[in-house]
Write a structure and sequence with these properties.
This protein is α/β, with parallel strands linked by helices. 52% of the residues lie in helices and 10% in strands. It is built from 15 helices and five strands. It has helices spanning 3-28, 35-47, 63-67, 69-73, 77-87, 98-111, 115-122, 126-143, 154-167, 216-221, 224-230, 262-285, 300-319, 346-350, 355-374; strands spanning 175-186, 189-197, 203-211, 240-243, 253-254. A five-stranded mixed β-sheet has the order 3-2-1-4-5. Helix 1 (3-28) packs across helix 5, helix 1 runs parallel beside helix 6 and helix 12 crosses helix 15 (355-374). The protein is elongated. Residues 5-21, 25-69 and 336-343 have low confidence and may be disordered.
Length: 375
């Protein structure tokens, strides 16, 4: 790269970082939350961004202030700056810097704060605030799909299964993910989102946008995951996912036993342990306030964009080893649906289970039983 071009790029990055830091101060300081104070300050900060290049960033006393960004944006200050630089060429909001647009978007996603309140806080028209959030979601979903994808290489799959096996004290091998379906209230009812997560809390698969009244199994049957699994596209026949009792037993989906004796109870206990990371993933998604306040989104496409963007940001934070948004709580999997309604699927009860699925689960239960007796 030419020296002049390199200097220009470094200058842009430094300016963006300085503006992002200033925007963060505006968001975190309650004394400047009114438009009469926020607007002039933001305009002033934006106007001096070029001159701020002359000030070494290490001279800016911001460590404690930026550490508080976890409360404002569900991420550390370093992740906020990283994301600002990453989106600099892509996030185009009229008359606003990337840092400002990012701060507005993350404020909406993190807190679920109404657009009218964000408009007041940032001293901008409601339409501009909505545009920022919409463009941010579009950029993330268009350019960073690889943040959320089911692993395709045997090495990655083996790594996932080995972590699950370690979680069970080496009693259940070959598990490549845990499956569940959660629901979020919207202005027109609720939507269902199907999730597969690994033992490291990473979301491997997301299928959202189904009507909330549909059962978990119905959502599964109408997702691409169901077809891909039945056709053996994602992993070999000896591997599987785990799911709660609201799914049927399938050759690639191990669920708990309904009627249990001691051996089956042992399997069910280990199965529940394997679902615990998924419980934290679901709780972590609920840490994104927008998913608890989707009623304000009148466009169904924007509802889906919010759900998908939060899931992708969840993975991006884990990728950076930023645990700011990772919940310490575990939500029970297979219990409450999330929108106050219970769903029973007659298809699960009447589903004809394949013999090889029964055989695989029995073999796993035997492994757990033998390991318990040896110890």
């Amino acid at each position: 790269m030419e020296p002049s071009r390199r200097r220009r790029r470094l200058a842009v990055a430094a300016a963006s970082s300085a503006v992002a830091q200033a925007v963060l101060l505006v968001c975190l300081n309650p004394s400047i939350s009114s438009p009469s104070l926020a607007s002039p300050l933001l305009l002033h900060l934006l106007s001096i961004s070029s001159s701020s290049l002359l000030i070494p960033l290490k001279q800016v006393k911001r460590k404690r202030q930026l550490d508080d960004s976890t409360l404002a944006f569900n991420m550390s200050s370093s992740t906020f700056e990283w994301l600002t630089g990453l989106l600099e060429p892509l996030l185009d909001c009229p008359s606003l810097s990337t840092g400002t647009c990012l701060a507005i978007s993350l404020s909406r996603l993190t807190t679920g704060e109404p657009y009218s309140s964000l408009s007041t806080r940032f001293g901008l028209p409601d339409s501009t605030v909505r545009l920022c959030v919409r463009r941010f979601c579009r950029v993330i979903l268009t350019n960073y799909r690889f943040w959320l994808s089911f692993p395709s290489s045997p090495t990655d799959l083996n790594s996932i299964s080995s972590h699950f096996e370690s979680l069970t004290d080496n009693r259940i091998p070959n598990c490549c993910g845990a499956l569940t379906c959660v629901r979020f209230k919207t202005g027109s009812g609720s939507i269902a989102a199907q999730i597969v997560a690994d033992c490291s809390f990473r979301i491997l698969h997301l299928a959202a946008g189904f009507r909330g009244e549909r059962s978990d199994f119905d959502v599964l049957k109408n997702s691409s995951l169901y077809d891909d699994m039945n056709e053996g596209k994602l992993f070999s026949a000896d591997k599987f996912l785990i799911g709660a009792g609201n799914y049927p037993l399938l050759p690639w989906l191990m669920v708990p036993f309904d009627q249990t004796k001691e051996k089956e109870e042992g399997f069910n206990a280990v199965h529940k342990t394997m679902q615990s990371p998924l419980g934290r993933v679901v709780s972590s998604l609920n840490n994104w306030g927008v998913l608890l306040n989707l009623e304000e989104e009148t466009d169904n496409k924007m509802v889906l964009a919010c759900v998908s963007t939060c899931a992708m940001l969840h993975n991006a934070l884990l990728m950076r080893e930023d645990l700011s948004a990772l919940s310490e709580e575990e939500r029970e999997i297979g219990g409450e649906t999330g929108d106050g309604y219970e769903r029973c699927d007659d298809d699960v009860a009447s589903f004809e289970v394949e013999g090889k699925a029964v055989e695989m689960r029995n073999e796993l239960a035997e492994r757990v039983w033998v390991a318990k007796r040896v110890r």
